[in-house]
Inverse folding.
């Protein structure tokens, strides 16, 4: 029965991959027809590649941390400055530089291609039967394409993360280096380093942290600005401003959690209570808080369970749990999702909960959305269409459903991990875990591990 379930799963993944292809073709047709990317892509059609060229402008002119209040560590500025044409940049800091710096745009597309190649090699190594639909969905899915449209440096960070924590690189020191680079791109990836402590991989965690410090120090010396105090102050400032009404109105267009929606419900400047009524707003507020707190609690319980029995789950699963908790605990841009989805696609189609996570990953990657009400039309210039267009904006189904899918993926993996730990404890007991003999006792009245030959002898002496 389990074998039949796996075979059906493989066939179903190819069907989901075909749906993914149809959604990509639909998005491409809508873009060619209308001159701008359809929902749920970023609604400002003039703002394409904003993240890349904003960083590039400040990298060439300086003052990113005291004037722009940048939250990126210096590494992003150092590399983006190297991957552009210096003659294109001046003091006006406008997006007109996009028409000059073709090299920077070329690097963005190169990073997407590298993501496709590295993910394909990974999935081919794990399971050739599902490698193609998974690699295609990972590379052409909505989270990755959103990062490309924004021009975010995370496209390179994804490549580095796959090399740091995936199965392709064998050298431990090289993996530590890639981990240090990844954390210097996106600070929240420190979660993937710290979860190594749950597996008692002390040297891996220490090596990755040392590499992070070394990469930061070198990039700081090269850039000449961005000390830790500046970055911390700017992150706090960003976190406070990120949840204002204007920012929330933009972020809710493609939200990853219900945090933004919760903020809008409680914002005195948003006329939500007037439109929906105080009773409905209270019920929505309570429901969203329960969802957020419950999912975070489940993630913490699962990591505590894995700490009890780290050998019961794969190291890739543990990284997915750590990243999943970070993505659930705070609102992150959608282009942060591919790093989590990469580890989800490394799972095999087995059990009941893991297939739910895999199917949900395919569904949230679809590059399509559905209007829920009347539309508002805005006249603006489209960078992609190179003309003025009338863009459509409306409440979308994905605004309400997508965050639930984002939460469901790590929660399913968390619940499956808890089940795996409980099953392993029931079947294996405690005394056979000789490699953990130097650890402190896990629970009271738990027998200490015994040598493997003694454990085998005791097992043989037990009457059948």
């Amino acid at each position: 029965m389990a074998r039949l379930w796996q075979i059906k799963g493989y066939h179903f993944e190819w069907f989901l991959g075909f749906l993914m292809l149809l959604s990509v073709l639909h998005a491409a047709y809508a873009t060619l027809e209308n001159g701008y990317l359809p929902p749920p892509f970023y609604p400002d059609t003039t703002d394409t590649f904003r993240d890349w060229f904003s960083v590039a402008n400040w990298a060439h002119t300086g003052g990113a941390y005291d004037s722009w209040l940048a939250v990126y560590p210096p590494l992003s500025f150092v590399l983006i400055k190297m991957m552009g044409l210096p003659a294109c940049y001046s003091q006006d800091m406008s997006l007109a530089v996009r028409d000059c710096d073709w090299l920077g745009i070329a690097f963005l597309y190169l990073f997407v291609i590298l993501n496709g190649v590295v993910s394909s090699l990974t999935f081919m190594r794990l399971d050739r039967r599902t490698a193609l639909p998974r690699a295609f969905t990972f590379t052409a899915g909505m989270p990755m394409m959103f990062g490309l449209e924004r021009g975010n440096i995370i496209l390179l960070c994804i490549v580095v993360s796959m090399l740091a924590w995936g199965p392709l690189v064998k050298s431990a020191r090289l993996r530590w280096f890639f981990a240090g680079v990844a954390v210097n791109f996106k600070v929240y990836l420190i979660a993937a380093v710290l979860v190594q402590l749950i597996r008692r991989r002390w040297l891996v965690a220490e090596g990755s942290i040392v590499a992070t410090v070394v990469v930061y120090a070198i990039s700081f010396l090269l850039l000449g600005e961005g000390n830790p105090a500046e970055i911390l102050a700017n992150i706090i400032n960003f976190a406070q401003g990120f949840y204002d009404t204007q920012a929330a109105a933009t972020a809710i267009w493609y939200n990853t959690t219900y945090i933004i929606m919760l903020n809008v419900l409680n914002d005195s400047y948003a006329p939500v209570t007037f439109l929906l009524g105080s009773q409905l707003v209270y019920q929505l507020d309570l429901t969203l808080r329960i969802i957020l707190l419950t999912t975070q609690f489940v993630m913490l319980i699962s990591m505590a369970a894995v700490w009890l029995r780290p050998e019961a789950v794969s190291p890739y699963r543990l990284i997915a749990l750590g990243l999943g908790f970070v993505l659930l605990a705070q609102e992150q841009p959608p282009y942060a999702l591919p790093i989590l989805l990469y580890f989800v696609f490394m799972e095999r189609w087995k059990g009941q909960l893991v297939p739910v996570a895999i199917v949900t990953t395919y569904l949230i990657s679809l590059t399509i959305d559905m209007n829920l009400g009347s539309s508002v039309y805005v006249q603006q210039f489209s960078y992609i269409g190179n003309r003025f267009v009338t863009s459509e904006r409306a409440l979308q189904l994905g605004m309400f459903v997508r965050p639930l899918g984002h939460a469901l993926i790590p929660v399913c993996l968390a619940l499956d991990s808890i089940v795996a730990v409980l099953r392993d404890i029931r079947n294996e007991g405690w005394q056979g875990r000789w490699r953990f003999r130097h650890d402190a006792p896990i629970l009271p009245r738990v027998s200490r591990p015994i040598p493997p030959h003694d454990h085998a002898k005791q097992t043989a002496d037990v009457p059948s």
The first strand starts at residue 376 and ends at 382.
